[in-house]
Write a structure and sequence with these properties.
By secondary structure, this protein is of the alpha+beta class. It has 4 helices and 6 strands.
């Protein structure tokens, strides 16, 4: 029953040029440090601000890295993957797997202009309703005096 999951994945080749701070991202995972219980792959854990990956803009946190310069990262120890990245040279070609978020389903991604947290209406509407009820009850009570 993996058919539904396969449709939510997309692969892309991303070519990066190593900058002063390296490739500009951190990784997690490997056969000895699984990031996901069902997957021993290597994943992007953090994109460094102003790094090569951030400037390119295509690599995202959570992406699974499938190959580095054509070398598969399947069934690899974490430190071996780190060494592979460090020795990959200045021009690095990554084959990555993105997880696609359904357009009409729930999403944890927020666009740049969207504020986080609870929407203001969720707080104001019940608060206003309670205020109106309290004022109405108070006025009714005063009329009886």
């Amino acid at each position: 029953m993996n058919g539904g999951v396969e449709g939510l994945l997309s692969e892309e080749v991303i070519d990066l040029t190593r900058g002063p701070s390296g490739l500009g991202f951190n990784i997690v995972g490997g056969t000895d440090q699984q990031h996901l219980s069902s997957d021993t792959g290597i994943f992007v854990s953090r994109i460094k601000e102003n790094g090569a990956a951030a400037q390119d803009g295509r690599l995202q946190e959570g992406d699974k890295i499938l190959t580095v310069n054509g070398k598969e990262l399947k069934d690899m120890l974490h430190q071996h993957a780190v060494d592979l990245f460090r020795n990959a040279g200045d021009h690095v070609s990554l084959k990555v797997q993105h997880r696609l978020v359904p357009q009409n389903g729930p999403s944890s991604h927020r666009g740049d202009g969207e504020p986080g947290g609870i929407p203001l209406a969720v707080i104001l509407v019940p608060g206003l309703a309670i205020t109106v009820a309290v004022v109405w009850a108070f006025l009714r009570y005063r009329q009886r005096l």
